[in-house]
Amino acid sequence: MTESAASVPRLVVGYIATDRGRDAISLAISIARSVEIELVVTIIRPESSTFHAAGSIPKDGTGIVAQQLDEWLEEALALIPDDIAARGVIHTASNESKGLMEVASDEGAVAIVIGARATTLMRQFRIGTVATSLLHSSEVPVVLAPAGRSDIGPVSRITTLFGARPGAAALIGSAIEAATAFDVDLRLVALIENDGMAEDEIAEVTEFAEEYGGAVLAARASDLFASGRATVVSEGGADIEEAAESVEWISGELAFIGSSRLGHGRVFIGARARRLLRVLPVPVVVIPRRTLSRADDATGADTSARADGDTQAAEGEQR
Q: Which InterPro entries does its entry note (predicted)?
């Protein structure tokens, strides 16, 4: 591999031969249309060699299993246009989530994309076993592709749902990095479980976002705000779901949310984030706590103390 090829970021795409796998592929293609990245389409083969979908693989030998997995991988790669860099991996692991995390680590991937389960009435994301395990263990961001709505076209805007508490620093910092990489606008949305913010409070959150985005990204954040490409708004509601349902979305948008502080440096999806996933109609990027902790350390105690004092905004960690 050449040095230039090695420097291209990689995105692990978890694939199974169902609509969920195709949703993940569709979203990965949309991301690759917006930023230079290599897709690593990954099928996990359980160590037991008894993996089968809808009874399509007879349990009569590893050769048949291997052949079927090879065919599925070829089908998955055939879904990806020729002008997008992509390759396939079949990785053996004890379970799908563990295997995806191992491949992400081996590849130095920037994130893992998986499809959510089929939607049900009044629920946008239905989190299955694999997604739940990833959201409790992954050390890289997990991107959830909504069922049937993952072909979003080029990424158009990054929206971060945050609160003025420690943990929001890196969430905002990650969103700034993404908006810069995609060359799109950034929107910071504070979800308020009561009345909306007054104008002076909006100004406070704007200042907070610039300072609390991380020391390394401070200049870049200031440029975004000064150019009008980054905005701060708030949405209120009786609860977090009602507030989130008030947010308007545009085609091609990605939502960023933070993980809980209970994940010990990894993604840990808490009750508040689960409630958000029930109503968000766009792909969601969940940022792991380890990333949040590193950026929090970089911001210094002053902004942390200030953020602790703001009790009106929804928690950035989505506890």
A: Rossmann-like_a/b/a_fold, UspA
Strand, coil or helix: 224: helix
Q: Which residue has the tokens 């694939």?
A: 15
Q: Which residues pair with 189 in a beta bridge?
A: 161, 233
pLDDT tens-place string over residues 33-88? 999 999 999 999 887 654 445 444 444 446 777 888 999 999 999 999 999 999 99
HSE (CB half, 13 Å, CA atoms) of 105?
10
Would residue 278 count as lying in a domain?
yes
Contact 112, 286 (CB under 8 A): no
d(C-alpha 22, C-alpha 126), whole Å: 16
Q: Which candidate, 59, 261, 27, places its Cα nearest to that of 146?
A: 27
Which of 101, 128, 152 is where one domain is finished? Answer: 152
Look at residue 96 and tell me if it is in a domain: yes
Q: How many CB atoms lie within 10 A of CB 215?
A: 15
